[in-house]
Write a structure and sequence with these properties.
By secondary structure, the chain is mostly beta strands. The chain contains two helices and 22 strands. Strands 1, 4, 5, 6, 7, 10, 11, 12 and 13 form a nine-stranded mixed β-sheet that branches. Strand 15 and strand 16 form a beta hairpin.
């Protein structure tokens, strides 16, 4: 082989190696010039608080009422799943910068038992003096598997929900997110003990520990039918039913952990569920779901409900507005089994193969 060919071959290998490197290529080594950072991951396992109750009548009108801020019902994740936690550490020029203006120092992924309480894990980093932001995300994946499952998490400022993935249990769409800013300054601490910055307050981190609190990035709703007895008098059975939920307009399908807000939206998606009885009040749980929501404002989704028996439509109730608040639960009630509201048009163009997607720039 000629020297020229050897050179070309060597450069080709180098290019392949550089392209295949993961996002940890900026990670700093453990040296005396670098400070120890212990990033403590605390994903909140407390059930969401109740938010609002929305009651619909026989004509499609509704009334909203605030609910007492008590805890909603908890659930136990499936044994086939693990809790996955992802952390990305960025070095910034200013605390005002977004992470896409900084340098990704490291990215770590860990899985823990699905029931583990906070803190779920502590990650060790060594970094030089500077300004840093840690982004963290938690979701469920197949047991002991770090690969994406319901959410695509290549970048935590551009998470995408896999809307084509339909978990057996919608509770497994649950997710949590959090971030933390900190400063490493050897003039403030000889060992480089970090200073945590929260708005206008600066707090020295105890023993190099930087705690990050992760809260749900979603709001939850439950849709309940209140006309069970009237439905049973018609000779039908709950056990024979299936339910289709159609999300109308645009619904969130992406999330930016840095801004703590949804940043991707898709138009018209559907969900199929099996109804179940609610012994506490004699209603029927038609559906429940988790929707990525904004940090500090109320979001809304608009849905249609279709009730089927053996692929034959028994009833539909359309244009149900659901108010959502992050980390809270909304309860929707109404005569959804027996009262027809709306034309029955699902509003999906059968000749359209694609999907409408909107990405909100940061």
């Amino acid at each position: 082989m000629s020297k020229r060919r050897k050179y070309i071959s060597l450069m080709s290998c180098l290019v392949v190696w550089l392209v295949s490197c993961d996002t940890t290529i900026h990670e700093y080594p453990q040296t005396e010039e670098n400070a120890l950072i212990l990033l403590e991951l605390n994903a909140d396992r407390t059930p969401p608080q109740y938010y609002k109750e929305v009651t619909y009548d026989h004509e499609g009108n509704y009334q909203e009422a605030e609910l007492e801020a008590t805890l909603s019902s908890a659930y136990i994740p499936d044994e086939r799943l693990s809790l996955r936690l992802i952390a990305e550490l960025y070095k910034l020029s200013s605390f005002e910068d977004r992470v896409d203006q900084g340098v990704l120092v490291a990215r770590r992924i860990v899985t823990v038992d699905r029931l583990k309480e906070a803190p779920q894990d502590t990650l060790k980093f060594h970094v030089p003096a500077g300004i840093y932001r840690a982004l963290t995300w938690a979701d469920y994946t197949l047991k002991d598997d770090q690969e994406d499952w319901h959410y695509q998490t290549e970048k935590l400022d551009a998470i995408q929900e896999n809307v084509d993935h339909k978990p057996r249990v919608n509770h497994h769409k649950n997710s949590a997110a959090g971030s933390c800013n900190f400063l490493v300054d050897f003039n403030l601490s000889k060992s480089g003990n970090p200073t945590i910055l929260q708005r206008t307050r600066a707090t020295p981190a105890p023993d190099h520990v930087v705690p990050v609190q992760l809260q749900r990035a979603v709001g939850r709703f439950r849709l309940r039918a209140t006309d069970l007895q009237e439905f049973l008098k018609s000779g039908n059975r709950i056990e024979d039913l299936s339910v289709q939920i159609v999300y109308k307009q645009y619904v969130s399908a992406g999330y930016n952990v840095d801004t703590e807000n949804p940043n991707r939206f898709v138009q018209t998606q559907t969900m199929e569920t099996i109804p179940s009885l609610v012994p506490e009040d004699g209603s029927v749980l038609l559906a429940y779901d988790y929707v990525l929501t904004s940090l500090d404002k109320e979001d809304h989704v608009l849905i249609d409900v279709f009730i089927y028996k053996d692929d034959r439509e028994l009833n539909h109730y359309q244009n149900i507005t659901i108010p959502l608040q992050r980390n809270k639960e909304t309860v929707i009630k109404g005569p959804f089994l027996t009262q027809k509201v709306g034309s029955g048009d699902i509003g999906i163009d059968d000749d359209f193969d694609g999907g409408f997607e909107v990405v909100i720039p940061d």
